[in-house]
Write a structure and sequence with these properties.
The protein is mainly α and 85 residues long. The chain contains four helices and no strands. It has one domain. Helix 1 crosses helix 2, helix 2 packs antiparallel against helix 3 and helix 2 runs antiparallel to helix 4. The radius of gyration is 14 Å and the shape is elongated.
């Protein structure tokens, strides 16, 4: 779980980030969907969940914009800056 681990490390190292409500929901959705996808991949019947996994992967890619976790985290913080001004 690349994104979940990165976000967790950032919170442990620097504390809770000041995210807007939308960016906080985005981060939580990314973590949740990443867990769902991982669970489906590790299933005993990976083909059984192909359609669901495809749908979740598509949503995951839309949320992350296929950015690596470092860039995504920075983007979410920048987008939230105006929320706290």
């Amino acid at each position: 779980m690349i994104y979940a681990e990165y976000f967790s490390l950032q919170v442990k190292s620097f504390g809770i980030p000041k995210l807007s409500v939308d960016q906080y929901k985005r981060m939580m959705n990314i973590i949740h969907i990443e867990g769902i996808i991982l669970g489906m991949r590790e299933s005993n019947e990976p083909n059984k969940y192909y359609t669901q996994r495809y749908r979740h992967t598509k949503s995951f890619n839309e949320l992350t914009k296929r950015l690596p976790p470092e860039l995504l985290y920075s983007e979410m913080i920048k987008l939230s800056e105006s929320f706290y001004k």
